[in-house]
Amino acid sequence: MRRGLPDGFELDDDPGRVDVDAVHRFLSEESYWAAGRPRETVERLVREAARVVGLYKGGEQVGFARAVSDGVAVAYLADVYVLPEHRGRGLGEELVREMVERGPYAQVRWLLHTRDAHELYGQFGFGAPGERLMERRAPVEPQRGP
Q1: What is the CATH number of the domain that holds 39?
Q2: Is 117 part of a structural domain of the chain?
C-alpha cells in the first residue's frame, strides 16, 4: 500500500522503506515508552512486525506505526508517532486509520497502551482502559556503553 496525503505527505507499508535510524532516534530519545531502546531492538521489531506503516515527507521518515498480530483474532498497536514539527495536521489520525481500519487486520480486536493519546485512539473505537487489560512489564534492558 502506498497512499498520498495532502501537502506532499505519504503513507507506505513497505518495511524495506522504513528508516530504522530515524525510527530508533525518535523512539529512544523522544518517546516516553521506548526511551533508551537499543537500535538492534528497533531493527528487529520493524523486521518482525506483522505490519509497519511509515509516514514520509519528501522521502524523509516523519512518522511511524507498528503492529503485532496473531493474524486471526488480535493485533497490538505500538510505537505510533509523528514528529513534533508535523503534528496538528491530522497525520496521526491518518497513520492510525491506515493501520487499524484499512489494513489486513481491520476485522480483528486491537489493543494498545498509552498514557497521553486517549482522544486520538478514541476516534477509532478504542475505549478507556479497562479492568481486564493486564500488563506485565519487561525487565529493564541493560544500558550499552558508547
Answers
A1: 3.40.630.30
A2: yes
Helix and strand counts by DSSP (H, E) for the chain: 4, 6
pTM score of the predicted model: 0.87
Please state, as a whole number, how many other Cβ atoms lie within 10 Å of the Cβ of residue 20: 17
Burial class (CB in 10 A: 0-12, 13-18, 19+), 2: exposed
- pLDDT tens digits, 63-102: 999 999 999 999 999 999 999 999 999 999 999 999 999 9
CB 49 within 8 A of CB 67: yes
| Residue 128, domain member (yes or no) | no
| CB-based contact 99:54 (threshold 8 Å) | no
Q: Is the pLDDT of residue 135 over 80?
A: no
User: What cell does 125 get?
Assistant: 473505537
Contact indicator for 78, 68 with CB cutoff of 8 Å: yes
Per-residue pLDDT at 125: 84
